[in-house]
Amino acid sequence: MASTSEIRKGLCIEFNSDIYQVVDFQHVKPGKGAAFVRTKLKSMTNGRVVDNTFPSGHKINDVRIERRKFQYLYKDDMGFHFMNTETYDQISFPEAMIDNPQFLKEGMEVDVIFHAEKNTALTMELPPNIVVEVTYTEPGLKGDTATNTLKPATIETGAEVKVPLFVNTGDLIKIDTTTGEYLERAK
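Above: the chain sequence. Below: its structure as tokens.
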């Protein structure tokens, strides 16, 4: 049992018979009335985000979670398959449980989050950014660098991202896996 004073980003709690992760929170002390904590919670089982307000001092059930390294193997009609890098156990996730599955590369290491007491897989998280090769993009026009113009590019995972005009086919680029935005050219 924890209290609302212990709420922080990333904390997992049991709420409405589901497990939620605190995405954002704000402690509010109005001039009149009691203090409260406004939170944004993301469900670990279905990915839905809900807003909730807890009165200050309210008791919450925190959930202990474990992060384990898994390697992405392949995708088929059953979902995405991953292998534990220590025990070689395999698990699969349906596409709905994965944020931005278009950025998964075969052999990539990801974090799978487990409920510690029940030992059940809750969700999978990609690394914050990845380095990928551009497999196709239109060539940029010489001298057209005065503006921050972006063009579409297809990367090795099959996803399409927006890149600057100077990026060519075959270049390695670093992209943000949460937003899908181009970050920089990789060396």
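The chain is about 0% helix and 55% strand.
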